[in-house]
Each structure stands twice: as structure tokens, then as C-alpha cells.
Amino acid sequence: MGNALVFLLICLDYCLHSPMYFFLCHLSIVDICYASSNVPHMLRSLLGQGRTISFAGCGAQIHLYLIFALTECVLLAVMSSVRYVAICRPLRCALITIWRLCLTLATVPWALAFVFGTLRASLALHLPFCGPCEVVHFSCEILAVLKLACAAASADKVLIFAVCVCFFLFPLALFLLSSLDIVATVLCIRSAPGWHKTFSTCGSHPTMVGVFYGNAIFMYVGPGSGNSPGREKVLSLFYSLVSPSVNPVIYSGRNKQVKEALLKLQRRKRVFHSV
In DSSP terms, which residues pair with 146 in a beta bridge? Predict the structure, then answer.
């Protein structure tokens, strides 16, 4: 509901029709789809309404989960680049206001995620699986499913590591480099109000990046990958439930323009009811 509200506000309020809010709108769509791909079945299982899933359903869950997770990884990196240009290269800021370029930058994460997610899911589902096919997880998480394969899945784990390097480590490195340049640029500002305004505007993005990338890297890339099922479940909950839920709060809760757009929407509703 929070992501849907952010999406609605950005679409309805003309003041929010800027590149950063355009990408935030895409992030809200990704979070809605991301959570919807596995949370309903997870809740159904936890409520004891049935803990079985068909092979086709499990494959679809893996496929959608990979597409939306990888899309968010690249999209966060794109948003970092847009913030970097807006703060550190203001003379080139006109480039990111070209909507054709914005559409291209928004299409690239979806296209890359669809290609790599489809390839990764198809390779995993073509493995031979032996009984009992009991996934020790809340949902059909890919690492938990690979443990059920009869054949050695070492090549698949290497491929997962390679995909994680491309979609996690490279975007994280880009984010860190741009953040360092942003901090250096802000420190050159002599006025304290300028410091406060810039850091309050950009502070939400590092928080979200830390939550999302940190858990994902520890899950798939770091020394914790392949850990106990209990730890995998906890980490999975963070980037499957916590991350999509807190995105609207982190990005919009302290944003003055979003608050004003919400007040405008409430006023329109009151006028409509009064008429």
C-alpha cells in the first residue's frame, strides 16, 4: 500500500515529474511486484493453509523473484548516478532531464534482469531433482532449491556468484564512488544549511542501499553464503519483506515534496466529498 501510494502521488502531482521521482516510481513498481511474487505463498504457508507448491509454481516464483531482485539492484545504481550528476555535475544536469534518456536508463535494468533472471532460472530448473523435494525455506529461494538437485550444482553456484558480482558488487562499487564524490562536494559548501539540505535529501538512498545490498551480498557472495537454513531464512526475510516495506518510508517519509503532494491529494478528496 505504501509503494502504491508513492506511485499514485508521483503520477498525479506534476511537481513530482522529475527524473529522480521517475526512477522512484519504477522502484515502487519493482517492490510491489517483488513482494507479490513470493509473500502471498509465504503467508499461506505460515498460516498453515498448505505448504505444497507445484514444480511449475516453484519455477515461476524463482523466475519472478530473480527478475525483480536484479532489476532493483541495477535501478538503485542508476538512482545513485542520477544523484551524483545532480549534485556533483550540475552543468550536466540538463542531460538527465531528457525523458528519452530517462526512459532508456529505466529500461536497461528491466531488460538486463529479464535476460539474466530467465537464464539463471532455466538452468536451475533443468537440473534433476531427487526426493524428498522438501524446500527448507519460506518460499522457493534458489539456493534452497539447488540443494535438492541430484547432480552437482557447483557450476550453478559459480554462475550465481558471477551474477551477484555483476549485479551486486559492481553497482555497490559505483554507489560508493559516487557517494565519496558527493560527500567531497558537499564539504566544499560553506553554508551549514546547504550541508543539512543536501545530506537530508541524499541520506535516504544510502540507507536503502545498505539494507538491500548488505543482506544480498552476505547471502549470496560473502562467507555466509551456503550457511544454515535458519540464517538463510532470516536474511531472505530482510530483502523480501523489510526492504520493499521500508522503501516508501525511507524515500518519502522525510521528503517535503512528497508530503506536500499527499496534502494536495487529501484536499482534493475533501473537495470531492463536499461536492
Answer: none
Cβ atoms of 81 and 177 closer than 8 Å: no
The CB-based long-range contact list for 235-239 (8 Å cut-off, 24+ gap) reads: 236/137, 236/138, 236/139, 236/141, 237/138, 238/211, 239/69, 239/211, 239/212, 239/215
Burial bucket for residue 5 (CB in 10 Å: 0-12, 13-18, 19+): middle
Q: Under a CB-based contact definition with an 8 Å cutoff, are residues 38 and 16 in contact?
A: no
Residue positions counted in the chain: 275
Instruction: Tell me if 233 sits within 8 A of 13, measured CB to CB.
Output: no
pTM for the model: 0.81
109-157 per-position pLDDT tens digit: 999 899 988 888 888 888 888 767 788 777 888 878 888 877 665 666 6
